[in-house]
Amino acid sequence: MIGAMACAGLVVSAQNSNSSTTMAPSNSNKPRRTGRRGTTKKPANTNTADQSTTDNTNMSANTNTGSRRRRGSRRSSAQTGDMASMAPKKTGRCDPTQQEQTDLSGTYTGKAKHGAEAPADATLTITGNNFTMTSGSETHNGRITAVTTCGYTAVTMMMGDLTPPAPSPNPPAALPAMSLRAKKVGDKLWLTSVPGETMTVSFTPTGGSMKPKPRRHRSTTKKTETAPAKTTP
Questions:
Q1: Are 143 and 120 in contact (CB under 8 A)?
Q2: Residue 54 falls inside a structural domain
Q3: Interior CA angle at 153 toward 152 and 157, to 5°?
Q4: Taking CA 121 as the corner, what is the angle to CA 186 and CA 215, rounded to the nearest 5 degrees?
Q5: What is the largest CA-CA distance in the chain?
Q6: Phi first, then psi: what are they for 80, rounded to 5°?
Q7: pTM more than 0.90
């Protein structure tokens, strides 16, 4: 009986030893944690990300700068094209960009008209850029300039004394200026105010008019010749 119990004890101890032996490897096979939770990445990776971000920023900045320069160049070219389209164009022999100073020096007699007043006999004397107009008991002095462009002579006349006034707290009013058109043929001169001029002034030579005379058209009909009548002897 004791021998049977001893044998049974040996069997139980052997089973316990086997179970402990088989359970040990299961515990040792569990994975071990090699690092701590919440650890950050390596500094090398952080620097690389910063460099890539900086490179991307620089590339985007350069791209924007290039687009701005292109827009500026487009705007400048568009403005240049607008200015070129607004400039007067040359037609035929006329070049509107060519201007010529015109000398109207001479003494002219005719009729002077100002506003709604009746025309009066007047004598206009021009010497260089100075002029004197005498009409009855009145005499007017001033400056005159003339510029011709494509056969059109533009005139600017300023009435009054052009001597600079002395400095004072109450300076005199500016001299009146008039814009006119001039036409000179031989020793005759025509002056007329341009459209829109507030001061209407004109000077017409005696017996002269700026309107061209109508041309006489010759008739192109042929005259029929009549045969002479026969005479009987």
A1: no
A2: no
A3: 150
A4: 45
A5: 207
A6: -65, -40
A7: no
